[in-house]
Design goal:
Strand content: under 5%
Helix content: 40-55%
Structural class: mainly alpha
Largest sheet: none
Radius of gyration: 13 Å
Shape: globular
Length: 51
């Protein structure tokens, strides 16, 4: 059974769309206990580095 996916709104800037998609991917990876490092490499996600 596939989880209910929300529709992405249309007409939004590409950067905001990518941020929203990255957020969903990260949440899904955390649910599946998948390594965020692997996810970042697969999906080209850049995590902020602490100062």
């Amino acid at each position: 059974m596939e989880p209910n996916k929300k529709q992405m709104p249309t007409g939004i800037p590409a950067l905001l769309y990518k941020v929203m998609q990255d957020k969903r991917d990260i949440k899904q990876a955390l649910k599946e206990k998948k390594s965020l490092s692997e996810l970042a490499k697969e999906k080209d996600i850049n995590f902020a580095k602490p100062l």
